[in-house]
Amino acid sequence: MKIVRWGLLGAGWIATKAIVPAMNAAADTIVQGVASRDLSRSQALNPVTIHQSYEELISDRLVDAVYISLPNHLHFQWTVAALKSGKHVLCEKPFAMNAAEVEIMVQAARDNDRL
């Protein structure tokens, strides 16, 4: 079984109370890294690595997939950046602010053979 090494962009309520507990309960996932504006929240998630920036996390070769729990207006920017960095992405809702952003995000996933 392949272990999926997750990176988290943001450490908000849904990430800390729902997503990370589910990841920790799964046999095939690990919280590899976290990047958040709040260092104490990052530390509380007990990741393998705490990143100093979002860019640093999506550039981490040990991260396979990125969970994006940033403010809504940042979903587009960081989803596209993560996909272009070769990461699979799971993004909180709303996925994007409009249909044009969704089209670009979907194309970035296709172009980089990522989900």
Topology:
Blueprint: E1 4-9, H1 13-25, E2 29-35, H2 39-44, E3 49-51, H3 54-59, E4 65-68, H4 75-84, E5 88-91, H5 99-111
Parallel strand pairs: 1-2, 1-4, 2-3, 4-5
Helix pairs in contact: 4-5
Structure description:
The chain is α/β, with parallel strands linked by helices and 115 residues long. It has a single domain (4-111), classed as Rossmann fold, CATH 3.40.50.720. Helix content is 42%, strand content 21%. The protein has a 5-stranded parallel β-sheet with strand order 3-2-1-4-5, sandwiched between helices. Helix 2 links the parallel strand 2 and strand 3. Helix 4 (75-84) runs parallel beside helix 5. The two termini are 19 Å apart. The relative contact order is 0.17. The mean pLDDT is 96.
